Amino acid sequence: MSLIESKYLIRSLTFLLISLLSQSIFAEKIIMVRSKLAFPEAMTALQISILKHGYQISRVQRVDIGLTKSNFKTDKYRVVFFGKQKELEVISKVTPSMVAYLPLKMAIFAEGEQTLLVTVHPDQFADMFPNPKLKKYFKRWQQDIRSIFATVVNSQ
Amino acid sequence: MKKYFNRDPASNTLQYEMARIIVLTFFASLIVLGLVIDSVFAVNKNGDTLYQNHCSACHGERGSGGVGIPLALKSFQDKVSNDYLFKTIRFGRPGRVMPAFDQLSDTQINAIVKTIRKFSTSKAIKYSNKTIVGNIKLGKILFKNNCASCHGPNGSGGKGTGVTFSRPRNSAIVAPALTNIGFLKSASDQLIKQTTLFGRKGTPMPAFSKKLKINEIDALIAYIRSFEKYKGTIKKVGSKTAQDAIIKVKSNYSLKETVKNIKRAVQGANFKLIRVQYLNQGIVKKGTENKKQVIIYFCNFLQLNTALAIDPRVGLFLPCRLTVVEQANKVYIIGINPLRLSSLFNNEELDNVCAEMRKTYLSIIEEANL
To answer: What ipTM does this complex have?
Structure first.
């Protein structure tokens, strides 16, 4: 094969590869999943999964309790705060302003017999705080959040 | 190899050319085969997978609805075309919860449409693109008398989204915003006419076939279509990302005094103080917390309830908080910028609430720093 023909072949293969890969490349702003579990079971599965991924749960904000006490009707709604000691220490030093978004959090709320889980896509933090030293955290958070959510979604 | 290659140089060149063509054809066939296999198998498989990944959280695994509309509803499936579904996915509803999926290819969107069609046995209807001509002035009067109570006086739609906070569970949908450019780009005149004539069974949308004459319905369609010229083109979602991620102000006081001042300012602004804690509290061993990073959580439940009705996902903002940190003997008050977070939600109504919230944060900080 001539050099020109090889180039065409390589281009075709590259195009094919890019076409296949592009299916999974998109800019998400929020990660949101639906679990078939009822709220209490989904909440338990979420907390167990967060801990299994090496994070500590800082606290759980019971949004629904506050609303109900103020006479508003609401379904179950909680916000779970979680983080890792080392990460908090490093980020506090590298980009002190980012503490406003830490610890990380996930909102979990009931929708009928099912449960929705939602969190900010960590790529958004990369836009907000473009410090190369933080990239590895954002990447891992994304993997961990997807894995944590997948565990809840796949829980029976 | 000798027997395949003649000693005659001219013949050798010909055989070499043939061999080269065979090799190239083989590789080209492999590529085409790969693409065909990918498009046949992956598309079918991906329709379901793509739906699960992009749509099911809001619309339900089988289109039962929730945050999003119930796509499985028979009267919806009966009256919407594949073209409408395709364009709705492509353009979304700018300023409402439904995002524009501009990152998906046409093939992927068509695959999702196929999956949505599986939720019902209804056959996809096709509409002509014929424009409906009607008396806009008459349409405006008819709209005010027949549609405005649900779709809003200017066609901007019902408030909020999602069954959890904004509407009771027995109400399948919030009346859509007819002025929304995503809707106007997706819905043909004929689709709007059919919906107006026959309504949507299972939703509050009634049939007007017996109440209005055809020329009156045409007038209504012409009026609804006239919204298009006021709304302009589709805005790029996330236009507020230029906003700073945080609000940061240097405090004039010590860390302890700043925390005390914020607590007072929060209550003065009609917020309930929920909790004061160290940033790493609960994450590190008790007693080893960093006492130079303090979070003050607060909430106004009326505002919270309003925000949740607009978009149930706003838990990501909750509760309101300011963080006080001491760095190099200087004290700073840091808060998230609600307008920056709001840009993630594709919700104009929420943007307005967040603009107010930003003002509130600034006013609390100012009060605490006096």
So the answer is: 0.81
